Amino acid sequence: ISIGGHRGGVTCVDLPNQLYRADSLVSGGEDGLIKLCSLKSSDDPNQRKNTLLSRFSNTQALPTSTDFDASETQGVLTGHEGKVICIKTAWHGDKLLSGGADKTVRLWDLSSTGRSKPLTSLVGHQGWVTQTHFWGPNTIVSSSTDRSIFLWDTRIGSSPLFALRYHLSPISSLLLGNRSEPLMVSACADGSLATWDFRVLAGARNNEKTPTVDETKATPEGVQCSRSIRTPIATMKSMSTGVVRLARSVGRDDFSFMSLGDDGAVKEWEPSTGRKISSHASGHQDAISGFDSYGAADCLLQTSGCGLGGTISCSWDGTVRLRKLSRESN
Predict the structure, then answer these.
(1) How far apart are CA 56 and CA 58, in angstroms?
(2) Strands ordered across the beta sheet of 288-295
(3) What local confidence, expressed as pLDDT, does residue 268 receive?
(4) Cβ pair 213, 203 in contact under 8 A
């Protein structure tokens, strides 16, 4: 499947929740635009057989190539003044987050097809926004090349509730647990990792005593206080230097995660304590450009049983590597 329409390079893509927007893809580009595209070909009279899911669930043959041009675009979102760095669709509704080189985080409503402007624009970062995530319906997490992580509440204004300031280099990756696992892991370009507990932040917001809060700043509007927190609950060192990518562990009941840096080593960690669980070589010979995990239900490797799932990684060495994990390798 080939999709066009951006003027310049495509910087990021994401797939919306299938419950809200099936067979669609969202892309951001160097042109500052965010485009929502349908993955159903208008040339195929039986569109049900030409969906993204049906193309890749057929293990008997490789999917045929289909080209999509700008006419397949369902909507174009404008507002960023500069290239779009990251996008993230919501798990709880038809919403979208984006971060850009203009140092802003923007919240969009994809269900309003006639609206191309953001619901809100969040300003506060001093560098490019590298990651955006939803934490609940109204709470947003963002990271930046300014070495900070911001937590925002969209109901009370455009100033962040908290600024997490532990890292000494640009933030390269964020990994969030779910609502029953209130932890977040951050990674930055100096190889350091940190674990943050949302319950600690909630205590700080309620003015409970906590040693992690070291300063308080009032916003220019005087509406909400933004607090800087410099002490995570755990710290780790994935490698001496270089960008680190994060992915959730597979085959475990509790929340644990894996890191992959430019040294080519995949390491598994316990986030609450910082203890390293295991390590193995990825096989890559150059800098890492992407890293993720997949579960047993995804069955990306059609072998004798899908096991626990595994990892998928890509590198500037020109290879994409899929590794099937087992309990012994964990």
Answers:
(1) 5
(2) 288-295, 309-315, 320-324
(3) 94
(4) no
- Asked if 11 contacts 84 with a C-beta cutoff of 8 angstroms, the reply is yes
pTM: 0.81
Q: What is the dihedral of CA 208, 210, 214, 217, to 10 degrees?
A: -20
Q: What is the pLDDT of residue 42?
A: 53
pLDDT of amino acid 211: 39
- Tell me whether residue 202 is exposed, middle or buried, using C-beta atoms within 10 angstroms of its C-beta: 0 to 12, 13 to 18, 19 or more: exposed
What 317-325 contacts at long range (C-beta under 8 Å, 24+ apart), as own/partner pairs, is 317/284, 317/285, 317/286, 318/286, 319/283, 319/284, 321/282, 321/283, 321/284, 323/266, 323/282, 325/250, 325/251
Q: Which residue has the tokens 């057989």?
A: 49
Radius of gyration of the chain (CA): 20
Q: Where are the beta strands (DSSP E) in 182-274?
A: 183-188, 192-197, 213-218, 225-229, 234-237, 244-248, 257-261, 265-270
- Give me the residues of the chain with pLDDT under 70, please: 1-4, 41-73, 113-115, 157, 203-225, 240, 297-307, 327-330
Q: CB-based contacts of 329: which residues, under 8 Å, 6+ apart?
A: 278, 280
